[in-house]
Amino acid sequence: MNQYVNLNRIEFVITDACSGQCKHCSNGENLGSKDSINADAAVAAIQRLAERFAIKTVMTFGGEPLLYADTVCKIHAAARDCGIPKRQIITNGFFSSDGRKIDELAKEICASGANEILLSIDAFH
Protein backbone atom coordinates (compact mmCIF):
# COMPACT_ATOMS: atom_id res chain seq x y z
CA MET A 1 0.00 0.00 0.00
CA ASN A 2 1.07 3.52 -0.71
CA GLN A 3 0.73 5.63 2.42
CA TYR A 4 0.31 8.80 0.32
CA VAL A 5 -2.52 7.57 -1.89
CA ASN A 6 -5.97 6.70 -0.59
CA LEU A 7 -7.72 5.12 -3.56
CA ASN A 8 -11.00 3.43 -2.67
CA ARG A 9 -13.25 3.98 -5.71
CA ILE A 10 -12.89 3.19 -9.41
CA GLU A 11 -15.24 4.67 -12.01
CA PHE A 12 -15.48 3.64 -15.65
CA VAL A 13 -17.12 5.73 -18.37
CA ILE A 14 -18.11 2.85 -20.65
CA THR A 15 -19.07 4.98 -23.64
CA ASP A 16 -20.27 8.44 -24.52
CA ALA A 17 -22.95 6.94 -26.79
CA CYS A 18 -26.40 7.40 -25.27
CA SER A 19 -30.02 6.70 -26.00
CA GLY A 20 -31.32 9.61 -23.92
CA GLN A 21 -30.13 13.02 -25.11
CA CYS A 22 -31.15 14.50 -21.75
CA LYS A 23 -30.61 18.25 -21.45
CA HIS A 24 -29.21 17.99 -17.90
CA CYS A 25 -26.56 15.42 -18.85
CA SER A 26 -22.91 16.28 -19.35
CA ASN A 27 -23.21 14.63 -22.77
CA GLY A 28 -26.11 16.94 -23.58
CA GLU A 29 -27.45 16.24 -27.03
CA ASN A 30 -24.22 14.59 -28.12
CA LEU A 31 -25.01 11.13 -29.43
CA GLY A 32 -21.36 10.29 -28.93
CA SER A 33 -19.26 7.72 -30.65
CA LYS A 34 -20.21 4.11 -31.08
CA ASP A 35 -17.09 2.97 -29.19
CA SER A 36 -16.69 1.62 -25.70
CA ILE A 37 -13.76 1.09 -23.40
CA ASN A 38 -11.73 -2.10 -23.63
CA ALA A 39 -13.24 -4.61 -21.19
CA ASP A 40 -10.05 -6.62 -20.79
CA ALA A 41 -8.02 -3.51 -19.96
CA ALA A 42 -10.66 -2.45 -17.41
CA VAL A 43 -10.61 -5.90 -15.77
CA ALA A 44 -6.79 -5.82 -15.60
CA ALA A 45 -6.94 -2.35 -14.01
CA ILE A 46 -9.41 -3.54 -11.37
CA GLN A 47 -7.30 -6.58 -10.54
CA ARG A 48 -4.10 -4.58 -10.30
CA LEU A 49 -5.61 -1.77 -8.22
CA ALA A 50 -7.42 -4.19 -5.90
CA GLU A 51 -4.06 -5.82 -5.11
CA ARG A 52 -2.64 -2.47 -3.97
CA PHE A 53 -5.58 -0.59 -2.47
CA ALA A 54 -8.68 -1.29 -0.39
CA ILE A 55 -11.16 -0.57 -3.19
CA LYS A 56 -14.69 -0.22 -1.83
CA THR A 57 -16.63 0.77 -4.95
CA VAL A 58 -16.61 0.21 -8.70
CA MET A 59 -19.05 2.22 -10.80
CA THR A 60 -19.92 2.02 -14.50
CA PHE A 61 -21.77 4.78 -16.31
CA GLY A 62 -21.63 6.70 -19.57
CA GLY A 63 -23.46 7.79 -21.94
CA GLU A 64 -25.64 4.73 -21.61
CA PRO A 65 -23.40 1.94 -20.31
CA LEU A 66 -25.89 -0.84 -21.01
CA LEU A 67 -25.49 -0.26 -24.74
CA TYR A 68 -22.28 -2.23 -24.02
CA ALA A 69 -23.68 -4.64 -21.46
CA ASP A 70 -20.98 -7.29 -22.00
CA THR A 71 -18.31 -4.78 -20.99
CA VAL A 72 -20.31 -3.66 -17.95
CA CYS A 73 -20.86 -7.25 -16.82
CA LYS A 74 -17.17 -8.16 -17.21
CA ILE A 75 -16.17 -5.16 -15.11
CA HIS A 76 -18.63 -5.96 -12.32
CA ALA A 77 -17.69 -9.66 -12.32
CA ALA A 78 -14.03 -8.70 -11.92
CA ALA A 79 -14.92 -6.34 -9.07
CA ARG A 80 -16.94 -9.08 -7.38
CA ASP A 81 -14.10 -11.59 -7.82
CA CYS A 82 -11.67 -9.08 -6.27
CA GLY A 83 -13.92 -8.70 -3.23
CA ILE A 84 -14.98 -5.13 -3.95
CA PRO A 85 -18.22 -4.76 -1.98
CA LYS A 86 -20.10 -1.98 -3.80
CA ARG A 87 -20.64 -2.45 -7.56
CA GLN A 88 -22.82 0.24 -9.15
CA ILE A 89 -24.31 0.95 -12.57
CA ILE A 90 -25.79 4.33 -13.52
CA THR A 91 -28.23 3.92 -16.40
CA ASN A 92 -31.19 5.70 -17.95
CA GLY A 93 -32.74 2.24 -18.31
CA PHE A 94 -33.34 2.52 -22.04
CA PHE A 95 -30.95 0.27 -23.87
CA SER A 96 -33.54 -1.86 -25.69
CA SER A 97 -37.27 -2.06 -26.36
CA ASP A 98 -37.12 -5.86 -26.74
CA GLY A 99 -38.65 -7.35 -23.58
CA ARG A 100 -36.79 -10.63 -23.97
CA LYS A 101 -33.44 -8.84 -24.32
CA ILE A 102 -34.21 -6.74 -21.24
CA ASP A 103 -35.02 -9.87 -19.19
CA GLU A 104 -31.83 -11.61 -20.36
CA LEU A 105 -29.71 -8.60 -19.53
CA ALA A 106 -31.27 -8.25 -16.08
CA LYS A 107 -30.19 -11.84 -15.35
CA GLU A 108 -26.69 -11.18 -16.70
CA ILE A 109 -26.36 -8.06 -14.52
CA CYS A 110 -27.38 -10.04 -11.43
CA ALA A 111 -24.98 -12.86 -12.30
CA SER A 112 -22.14 -10.38 -12.82
CA GLY A 113 -22.36 -9.20 -9.24
CA ALA A 114 -23.54 -5.64 -9.81
CA ASN A 115 -25.43 -4.85 -6.62
CA GLU A 116 -26.72 -1.30 -7.17
CA ILE A 117 -28.47 0.17 -10.17
CA LEU A 118 -28.86 3.93 -10.06
CA LEU A 119 -31.54 5.08 -12.48
CA SER A 120 -31.02 8.48 -14.05
CA ILE A 121 -34.41 10.08 -14.69
CA ASP A 122 -34.69 13.16 -16.87
CA ALA A 123 -37.24 15.29 -15.05
CA PHE A 124 -35.77 18.51 -16.37
CA HIS A 125 -37.67 18.70 -19.67
Outline the structure in words.
- A 4-stranded parallel beta sheet has the order 1-2-3-4, with helices on one face.
- The chain has helices at 39-52, 69-81, 99-112, and strands at 9-13, 57-61, 86-91, 116-119.
- Strand 3, helix 3 (99-112) and strand 4 (116-119) form a beta-alpha-beta unit.
- With 125 residues, the protein is of the alpha/beta class.
- It has a domain at 11-16 and 37-58 and 69-125.
- Helices cover 33% and strands 16% of the residues.
- It is built from 3 helices and 4 strands; from the N terminus they run E-H-E-H-E-H-E.
Radius of gyration: 15 Å
End-to-end CA span: 46 Å
Q: What is the count of DSSP helices, taking H or I runs of 4+ residues? A: 3
Average pLDDT taken over every residue: 87
Oligomer: single chain
- N-to-C series of helices and strands: EHEHEHE
Spans where pLDDT lies below 50 across 5 or more residues: none
**Major sheet description:** 4 strands, parallel
What is the 3D form?
A: globular
Helical percent range?
25-40%
Q: Which strand order do you get reading across the main beta sheet?
A: 1-2-3-4
Q: Strand pairing plus helix content: what structural class? A: alpha/beta
Number of strands: 4
Strand content: 15-25%
